[in-house]
Structure formats: structure tokens, C-alpha cells
């Protein structure tokens, strides 16, 4: 049986002189064009005035890109972009958030509904989400070609090993075989698209305000919530969170989807309306099946964490405290558990990867460097996100215990993890 897939596709699709066209950008454009085609068919069916679709397309493109960029900057790297606000405009450096794009779309469509099509806000949302679902699938495919936003290590036969830092001189090899969560997300976007497309064209769901929108919210954001349990954190600070940023941003959408669907199910039982039942039944069945399927990776992840949590809790005997090589330093740290002042649990697992609160935050340590300070060592490990290389500094002190002094983020700022002590 195939052990795993080594994903070596070049993120650059083609070069035109000094310019490079990347798969990610091309798939973003393809997603927008597919969305335009699907939505234009719907608007023709609704007999809206000519030119309405072009206005909608312009609104969607601008609100998606602006919302996605602002959402990433101020949800995932808040401190940095507050200090460097002009860099929010540097979209070519990467960094787009699907939740930010969703908020941007929701805001812009409110004004579009009121001043352009002069329909109710929910009427517009019920129809636009059909296009958004197919566009979302294309964007996730772009993440796959970008070797980014992938999952935790796994031994499933369809695991992918991704290139590290594929677009920089820091390319150092490949990640451990990991869940290809980009493909998982692409699949649930396509399935959600198929379901709401069917509901619009083959049932009377469009007559029940918000029903199609609620199926979209649950199909996309409930799936995203569960998949985050097996995805690597996009930023280091998420490692110490019970629910990461992606899950916290998904919850309002999930709650809204549950509320709207519950309302229409109640209306069915209250009014005994057969049309409502015909539309609600496949929608509710889809959500239930999806929720059950998405729980499987979450339970699988919890089992992996439980197995990895069985570690030795003994003091680290250090002798001597200086002049240790890579193997000696790692052997002193591997399998030992430390607790920081902030209450975070830190360790190096048997694969030489950093783990904080049961969440793996780095690739295996590749090199140990001795500093000018006696007994102080730098542990170099590739970051989870292609833009970063993390450096961890460990000081081995004379009393025979190893103490992690600090953890630096990609820009050299000190993270919350500092001065940990060994768990007895």
C-alpha cells in the first residue's frame, strides 16, 4: 500500500519575463469566473435587469479580496499590522483569510441588495452562496498548489509530504506526511455546492428565505470547525488556544445556520407545509451526515494526542553543560515535559518536533547551534507556514535541569512561552 504522496508541484504556473503567474492566483481567478457563470444563470432565471450581474461581480471581487486581506492581517497577525498598517496593502506577500472574505461579502451584499437589486438581503444571500461554494473549492485547490495550510502528521495512505518554503531560498526539504486538509476542504465545498444547487433548481427551497443560506453556512463552516482539529496552526499563538482562530470565527456562522434551519423545521411542523418538508428534509439530512463525517477526524486527532501525551516526566541530567552536539542536546530534551509561566505545556516529541499543549508547532529540529553564552543552544526548526523559520533558544543550566528561555516568532518578537520549568 502507498505510504504517502510526495507533493512536488511547483507553485509557479508559468513565468512571463520578470513576472510569475502562480497556481494560487490562477485558481482564485478560475473560482471567480466559475462563480460568475453560475450566478449569471441564476440571475437570468430570476429575470433581473441586464447589467445587474456585472455590478454584482465587481462588488464580489473587491469585497472578497479586501475582506480576506484585512481579516488575515487583524485576526492572525494583529500586533504586527497595527505597527505596520501600510503593509496591509502588500497583498503580493500573501495572507488571505476565508473568514475575512466572508465578512467582506456579507457587508457589501447588504448595500448591493438595498441599492442595486432592491431585494431583501436574505434573498441575495440565498443565491450568492451557490457561487461562493464553487469559488471556495477552487481557492482551496490553490492552497494545495501553494504547499500551505495543511494538516497534522498522519499515517493514512493518502497523506501528503509538502515542500517547505517552496518559493524562497529557505527551501529545506519536505514536511512529515500530513493530512491534505486543502483537499478535504475542497471536497466539502464541492459537496455543499452540489446540495444547494440541487435545492435551488429542483426544489422550492428558494421560496423559504434563508434556507439555502443556512445549508451553505453549515456545510462550509461546520466542516471547517471540525477540520481545524487536524490542521496545523497558521500562527504560533494558536497553539495555546482551546479553539483556534479559524474555529472561533466559524462559530457565529454555524450558530446562524443552525438558527435559520431550526426556524424552517419548526415552520414545517407548525404549518404542516409539504413544500417546506420537501426542501428541509434533504437539507437537514445533508447537515447531519456531514457533521457525523467531520467528527471522525476530530476523534482521530484526540486519539493521536492521547497517545503522544504518554511521555516521561523526569529531570534532565546534564553533564557537561557546554560543548554538547546536536544528538546530545536533543536526547536531553526529547520526551521531557515543561510548563511555562503562562501555563502552557511544552515538549519535544519522539520525532524531534516542538509540541505545545498537545499541538505540534514545528517540523523536526534540523540543527542545534551553540551560542556564545555557556550552555546556551539554538534549536532550528522549519515553521508550519511557508513564510517563516523559527528559532528556539534553550539554556542548559548548572543545576542539572534544562530550561527553555524563550520562543521567537518569525519576526523576532518573543512569544508567550518563556521561562518554563520541568514538570515533576
Number of strands: 14
Q: What distance lies between the first and last C-alpha atoms, to the nearest angstrom?
A: 43 Å
Written as H for each helix and E for each strand, in order along the chain, the element string is EEEHHHHHEHHHHHEEEEEEEEEE
Helix content: 40-55%
| Main sheet makeup | 5 strands, antiparallel
Secondary structure tally, helices:
10
Over the alpha carbons, how many angstroms does the gyration radius reach?
A: 24 Å
Shape: globular
Give start-end ranges of low-pLDDT stretches.
Answer: 308-321, 383-390, 407-419
**What spatial order of strands do you see in the largest sheet?**
8-7-6-5-14
* Mean pLDDT reading: 76
- Estimate the strand proportion: 5-15%
Describe the overall structure.
With 424 residues, the chain is α+β, with helices and mostly antiparallel strands. The chain has 2 domains: 5-307, no CATH class; 326-422. It has helices spanning 23-45, 52-76, 78-83, 98-117, 121-145, 181-202, 211-227, 245-271, 274-308, 326-333; strands spanning 5-7, 12-16, 19-22, 160-162, 337-339, 345-348, 354-356, 359-360, 365-370, 376-382, 389-396, 402-408, 414-418, 421-422. The strands form 4 sheets. The protein has a 5-stranded antiparallel sheet with strand order 8-7-6-5-14, with no helix packed on it. The chain has a 5-stranded antiparallel sheet with strand order 9-10-11-12-13, covered by helices on one side. Strands 1-4 form a two-stranded parallel ribbon. Helix 4 (98-117) packs antiparallel against helix 5, helix 5 (121-145) runs parallel beside helix 7 (211-227) and helix 6 (181-202) packs antiparallel against helix 7 (211-227). The protein is globular, with a radius of gyration of 24 Å. The protein starts with a strand and ends with a strand. The model is unreliable at 308-321, 383-390 and 407-419 (pLDDT under 50).
Amino acid at each position: 500500500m502507498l505510504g504517502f504522496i510526495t507533493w512536488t508541484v511547483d507553485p509557479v504556473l508559468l513565468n512571463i519575463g520578470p513576472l510569475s503567474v502562480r497556481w494560487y492566483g490562477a485558481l482564485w481567478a478560475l473560482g471567480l469566473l466559475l462563480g460568475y457563470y453560475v450566478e449569471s444563470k441564476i440571475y437570468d432565471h430570476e429575470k433581473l435587469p441586464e447589467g445587474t450581474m456585472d455590478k454584482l461581480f465587481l462588488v464580489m471581487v473587491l469585497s472578497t479580496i479586501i475582506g480576506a486581506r484585512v481579516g488575515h492581517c487583524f485576526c492572525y497577525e494583529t500586533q504586527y499590522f497595527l505597527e505596520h498598517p501600510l503593509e496591509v496593502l502588500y497583498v503580493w506577500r500573501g495572507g488571505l483569510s476565508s473568514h475575512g472574505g466572508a465578512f467582506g461579502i456579507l457587508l457589501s451584499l447588504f448595500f448591493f441588495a438595498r441599492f442595486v437589486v432592491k431585494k431583501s438581503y436574505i434573498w441575495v444571500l440565498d443565491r450568492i452562496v451557490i457561487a461562493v461554494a464553487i469559488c471556495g473549492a477552487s481557492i482551496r485547490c490553490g492552497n494545495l498548489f501553494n504547499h500551505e495550510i495543511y494538516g497534522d502528521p498522519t499515517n493514512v495512505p493518502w497523506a501528503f509530504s509538502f515542500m517547505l518554503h517552496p518559493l524562497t531560498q529557505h527551501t529545506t526539504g519536505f514536511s512529515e506526511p500530513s493530512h491534505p486538509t486543502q483537499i478535504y476542504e475542497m471536497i466539502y465545498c464541492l459537496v455543499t455546492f452540489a446540495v444547494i444547487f440541487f435545492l435551488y433548481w429542483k426544489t422550492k427551497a428558494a421560496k423559504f428565505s434563508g434556507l439555502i443560506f443556512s445549508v451553505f453556512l453549515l456545510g462550509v463552516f461546520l466542516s471547517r470547525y471540525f477540520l481545524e482539529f487536524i490542521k496545523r496552526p497558521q500562527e504560533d499563538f494558536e497553539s495555546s488556544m482551546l479553539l483556534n482562530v479559524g474555529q472561533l470565527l466559524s462559530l457565529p456562522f454555524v450558530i446562524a445556520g443552525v438558527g435559520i434551519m431550526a426556524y424552517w423545521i419548526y415552520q414545517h411542523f407548525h404549518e404542516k407545509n409539504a413544500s417546506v418538508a420537501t426542501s428541509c428534509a434533504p437539507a437537514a439530512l445533508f447537515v447531519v451526515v456531514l457533521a457525523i463525517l467531520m467528527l471522525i477526524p476530530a476523534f482521530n486527532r484526540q486519539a493521536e494526542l492521547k497517545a503522544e501525551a504518554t511521555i516521561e516526566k523526569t529531570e534532565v541530567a546534564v553533564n557537561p553543560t557546554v560543548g554538547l552536539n546536536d544528538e546530545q542536546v536533543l536526547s536531553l530534551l526529547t520526551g521531557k515535559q515543561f510548563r511555562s509561566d503562562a501555563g502552557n505545556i511544552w515538549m519535544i516529541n519522539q520525532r524531534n518536533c516542538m509540541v505545545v499543549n498537545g499541538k505540534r508547532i514545528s517540523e523536526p529540529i534540523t540543527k542545534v547551534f551553540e551560542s556564545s553564552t555557556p550552555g546556551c543552544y539554538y534549536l532550528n526548526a522549519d515553521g508550519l507556514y511557508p513564510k517563516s523559520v523559527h528559532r528556539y533558544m534553550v539554556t542548559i543550566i548548572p543545576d542539572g535541569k534544562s530550561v527553555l528561555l524563550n520562543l521567537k516568532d518569525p519576526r523576532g518578537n518573543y512569544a508567550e512561552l518563556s521561562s518554563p520549568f520541568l514538570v515533576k
